[in-house]
Please model this.
Amino acid sequence: MPRPKSYDRQDAIAKAGEAFWEHGFQNLGVRELEQLTGINQFAIRSEFGGKEGLYLETLTFYCDAAITSEMAPMKTGGIPEIIDFFQGLVTPGSATSSDWGCLIVNTGIENARIQSPRLEAVVNAYWAALEDHFLNALENEKRGQGGQVTFTPPTLAASLVPAVMGIHAQNRSLQDQTAGQPLVDLICSILAEHLSP
Model:
């Protein structure tokens, strides 16, 4: 007979996400995860497939939340929604702003050493989704302006992704969720120039 779970799965995944987000993947051992999440070591192995399996679940949880909430307005919006997204990256209390930067950016940096194909796949899928949302918004803006724009949507969308990475890296480096404000201001001013008068 399987032993009853002593934790709520979603709550544990959320706690694990916070732990990984703050401390990183390699810096946390299974015993520390047990203390921070309330999931015992046996469950981490049997329910999640070990530390990397738990990490993958937290990444999926993080990505899904960002895509369905913070990115979603760009699907039907235009440049103002992209500007809102960028401003959220440095707004205290925003779902996309943190002293710890971005879990996906942090994972990509750590994975340069770890070389996990599974982690790489999640990171790449997230950035592809973000670029797709930027592209949608830019294409919407272009249509709304009757095609009379001075930007090329695919090129600009691809350029905005590394800007997001840089903003999060700055926030993490200085442990200040407003540290990337100068870059956000620059990006937003450039985007605002492409709005119809």
Remarks:
- The chain has two domains: 7-55, 71-192.
- The chain has a mean pLDDT of 91.
- The radius of gyration is 19 Å.
- Residues 71-192 form one domain.
